[in-house]
Write a structure and sequence with these properties.
Helix content: 25-40%
Number of strands: 12
Largest sheet: 8 strands, mixed
Structural class: alpha/beta
CATH architecture: 3-Layer(aba) Sandwich
Order of helices and strands: EEEHEEHEHHHEHEHEEHHEE
CATH class: Alpha Beta
Radius of gyration: 21 Å
Distance between the termini: 26 Å
Oligomer: single chain
CATH superfamily: P-loop containing nucleotide triphosphate hydrolases
Bound molecules: adenosine-5'-diphosphate, magnesium ion
Strand order of the largest sheet: 6-7-8-3-9-10-12-11
Number of domains: 1
Length: 330
């Protein structure tokens, strides 16, 4: 369990989520703890299949059931214990308290409504604006995400995939939720637009003191957007800390491996050192530390029990057996 703060917007404790299918049980999220404080952006970074989206869906109680089953855990969002709420109460929570930008924009837009009306409707519901003001503000929001305001009159099918995603981001920002969960929000956008949209998201977030979970596999986006970083591997957070701590004083061998596999700007040889091996299949997690089979520091102990969180400061920890040895350094 993580330390308690007075300004917590989200607390996730011991979250375990499985997908039970005919092929077997995928242990997608395992005993995950996470705290997001007011105004902070926490980055959730990890490879495909590490449980990022499942964690996000759990917070909004959107894990598809079946096959998804919440095996354990408690989620306190803005003071509410969300697993105890009714479906009606959850509808209010989604949007007012937390809203999510999905990886795939197709499902998030109404094909029968102009994009301007969709943003304006959100503004009327969440900010109580009248019709004229909401339409004017909707056009402003489109400008924010780099879409000419006159396109407010168009329907989703008239936009490209990247443009649709920008509309989705505008709608999510218009809600001004306490917590914004952005699941790889800019992966589909080209790099120039991506940088612009991220900048705008950051500014709007700061203006409204919103909290955010930024989900990505891109360490550059983490560096640009986040105050704190959670590195997730096989459904567990294996390193957590402030951005500076995780980037400058990396403790977990897996996090180290992620950094080593980035192309170095000054290195003309472009020697990438990808971590050998693959993340284990969540249907066949090994005993002990899930990273041990790929870890050059692993000992017998690593293959036996789950590694405890080893703290290096107030918030910075690595779940790694090797730090039981006081001599161990990366
Ligand atoms: N609807 C589903 N049915 C069965 N397995 C799923 C489903 N959604 C996700 N999974 C499995 O759960 C694991 C975690 O997936 P996910 O949370 O989407 O990871 P990420 O977002 O980090 O890529 C993966 O092994 C994935 O195959
Ligand atoms: Mg995902």
């Amino acid at each position: 369990m993580d330390k308690h703060y007075d300004d917590e917007v989200l607390r996730v404790e011991d979250l375990t989520v499985y997908y039970e299918t005919a092929e077997g049980t995928a242990k997608a999220v395992n005993n995950l703890d996470l705290v997001v404080r007011k105004g902070k952006t926490v980055g959730l970074v990890g490879e495909t299949g590490s449980g990022k989206t499942t964690t996000a869906l759990s917070i909004l109680r959107l894990v598809p059931d079946p096959p998804g089953v919440i095996k354990s855990g408690k989620i306190i969002l803005d003071g509410m214990d969300i697993f105890t709420l009714t479906e009606g109460e959850m509808d209010m929570v989604r949007g007012y308290h937390a809203s999510m930008i999905f990886q795939d924009p197709m499902t998030a837009l109404n094909p029968l409504m102009t994009v301007g009306d969709q943003i304006a409707e959100t503004l009327r519901i969440h900010e109580g604006l009248n019709k004229a003001d909401s339409i004017a503000k909707a056009q402003e929001m489109l400008k924010v995400v780099g879409i000419p305001p006159e396109r407010a009159k168009e329907y989703p099918h008239q936009f490209s995939g990247g443009m649709k995603q920008r509309v989705v981001i505008a709608i999510a920002l218009a809600c001004q939720p306490k917590l914004m969960i952005a699941d790889e929000p800019t992966t589909a956008l080209d790099v120039t637009i991506q940088a612009q949209v991220l900048r705008e998201m950051k500014q709007l977030k700061e203006k409204s003191d919103m909290s955010m979970i930024m989900i990505t596999h891109d360490l550059g986006i983490i560096a640009q957007m986040c105050d704190e970083v959670a590195v997730i591997y096989a459904g567990r957070i294996i390193e957590y800390g402030e951005l500076r701590e995780v980037f400058k004083d990396t403790k977990h061998p897996y996090t180290q491996g992620l950094f080593d596999s980035l192309p170095k700007i000054n290195d003309t040889r472009e020697m990438l050192q990808p971590i050998p091996g693959l993340m284990p299949d969540p249907m066949e997690l090994p005993e002990g530390c899930a990273f041990a089979p790929r870890c050059k520091y692993a000992t017998e102990k690593c293959k036996q029990g789950l590694p405890p969180k080893h703290y290096f400061g107030d918030t910075h920890y690595a779940a790694c057996w090797r730090y039981e040895d006081p001599e161990f350094r990366l």
